[in-house]
Amino acid sequence: MVKLANPLYTEWILEAIQKVKKQKQRPSEERICHAVCASHGLDKKTVSEQLELSVQDGSILKVTNKGLASYKDPDNPGRFSCVKPGTVPKSVKGSRGACNELRNVDWNKLLRRAIEGLQEPNGSSLKNIEKYLRSQNDLASIFNNPAFQQRLRLGAKRAVNNGRLLKDGPQYRVNYGSLESKGAPKYSSTFPASLPPVSLLPHEKDQV
């Protein structure tokens, strides 16, 4: 049985990668471990193990350049460096290739399509979402991919984090408020859509 990375730890590692990149530094294993340990209190050994498992199941990309290994988010890889032959173990190449085939999939659209198609009033579980997507013939090339289930779970977690989906226990619902405000300034969502009328004080009426 192939051991898979814990999706929660994978998400923490992806957050650490973005954090390190924002600091204009190379997302090395040491920097990633330090960031995860500092943010979530996970020990370095566990982070290293989960990082390697995430690479093996395709949730994270490992790129080697000039003998130095860096880690990237498959959905936001940025500038790619050439991966030298032999840097990817043979047992991993299959899963890595499978993950690369899903790199351009818009998981937000697939999740919304499934939830709207299921029409469950209280939201849909990830299991039902997966069943629905597997029933769609036009998605055969996606759900037949070995990395489909892992990437679907990761896509759902990201959709919740960026506000596209709302999660209530195991149930997911589309956040239509987020979709309507797409393209609007970020600060607009922090204020109510309509404000109550403002009444002037007596001395302000005189000024007007």
TrEMBL record:
Q: Where is this region: Disordered?
A: 182-208
Extract the coiled-coil ranges from the record. none
Q: Which residues form the SAMD1-like winged helix (WH) domain?
A: 1-77
- Name the PROSITE patterns on file: H15, SAMD1_WH
Compartments where located: Nucleus
Keywords carried by this UniProt record:
Chromatin regulator, Nucleus, Phosphoprotein
* Entry-linked Gene3D superfamilies: Winged helix-like DNA-binding domain superfamily/Winged helix DNA-binding domain (1.10.10.10)
Output one GO BP term.
nucleosome assembly
Residue stretches making up the H15 domain: 103-176
One Pfam entry name? SAMD1_WH
**Keyword NAD applies:** no
Q: Where is the signal peptide?
A: none
What's the domain of life for this entry?
A: Eukaryota
Q: Which SMART domains match?
A: H15
Keyword Transferase in the entry? The reply is no
UniProt GO molecular function: DNA binding
Q: One GO cellular component term, please give it.
A: nucleus
Q: What is this protein called?
A: Histone acetyltransferase
Q: Which organism is it from?
A: Zosterops lateralis melanops
